[in-house]
Amino acid sequence: MFNFSTLPPLSLYIHFPWCVRKCPYCDFNSHAVKGDIPETDYINALITDLEQELPLIWGRPINSIFLGGGTPSLFTPEVLDRLFSALRARLAFAPDIEITLEANPGAIERERFSEYRAVGINRLSIGVQSFNNDQLQALGRIHNRRDAYNAAEAAHAAGIDNFNLDLMFALPRQTLPQALSDLDEAMALEPAHLSWYQLTIEPNTLFHQQPPTLPDDEHSWEMQQQGRAKLATAGYTQYEVSAYARGAQCLHNLNYWRFGDYLGIGAGAHGKISQANTQTICRRWKIKQPTAYLSQAGSEERLGGTQVLSENDAALEFMMNALRLQQGFPTELFMQHTGLSLDLIEEPLIAAEDRGWILRRKDQIMPTEDGQRFLNNLLGLFLPD
Ligand SMILES: C[S@@+](CC[C@H](N)C(=O)[O-])C[C@H]1O[C@@H](n2cnc3c(N)ncnc32)[C@H](O)[C@@H]1O
Ligand code: SF4
Questions:
Q1: Per-position b or e across 361-376, b if 16+ CB within 10 A of its CB
Q2: Nearest ligand to the CA atom of 29
Q3: DSSP symbol at 30
Q4: H-helix or E-strand containing 168?
Q5: What is the pTM of this model?
Q6: Whose CA is closest to atom 2 on ligand 2?
Q7: pLDDT of residue 302
């Protein structure tokens, strides 16, 4: 039985589904833009989408907003200003709300960051991927090393020091010194946060059809180990599988990893909402195709689907998220954010402890180094029989 006495914190995710070009490794809901982006129509559709979701979250404050993509930085500050006026009129923003915009160094003009800041955006996530021009080209990126420097410098100049740089490693034909040099260059730009992902080949991407030559597992592991050490020495503390921060962890992503609630608006956006009146946790997602999403604005057809979570789903999903965190989670968080008793997962917790994959302190559960390395095996223990 779910039993929510309080509800988890709430965030808002807004999806912007267009990019200048589709990158060959990307399986996100992003589409190469043909002609002009229908900015005004899309903002109107987002506002209508939000209005239809409001009854699910009446009265709850919003702690963070993430404008992700695709490439949200293709949208002008003027239209985002209109969107934010509409959001503020309909939602209670927490006083210290974090508002992040994803920006592509190839789709940003220098002055824009201060205009975005005036709109209310107080954090940026800049998709750099690499500082090596050959690798950027192999990744099909629309920007070069200089553009990445300009974007980071423009963020500082606009007074947004709280920015993240996205980097990837184990890139096609990448050597260990190249991977480490990307980290050095990134840190020289003084980001508050670094996301450092191992490139994965996803189905339904061009790289899946025409696989590039990637470093083998042993070399990738070496990159990861040496990269981690380098980041730690420079004061970037790892707090999740791919996330490193010097002070400023990403509140929005932390809410996902702690199994918080989030509304999702925009094409293909996912949401997860707990409700005390029905004692349920429900996932809901919007239709993916931008043109269909636009034409269905205001109708129930904008929903791609919904799913009410079972107790087992909720327990597994909590663990899939929370065990990504280096510090794990306080035991009471499980009860607060799933509405369930920890007894439900006592058996797999014992099995994980026996294998040396988790540590159980009095009121904290955390993955060990082995648990982090073999995360999928660890999570397998929480799958229903
Ligand atoms: C939602 S994506 C979009 C960011 C933005 N559109 C950009 O590319 O500049 C966020 C990040 O996920 C990472 N990413 C995307 N596809 C990946 C893949 N196949 N393997 C590893 N990381 C990936 C990239 O670092 C990317 O910047
Ligand atoms: S710019 Fe980002 S979202 Fe767009 S295709 Fe490339 S990786 Fe995907």
A1: eeeebbbbeebbebbe
A2: 2
A3: -
A4: strand 163-169
A5: 0.97
A6: 70
A7: 87
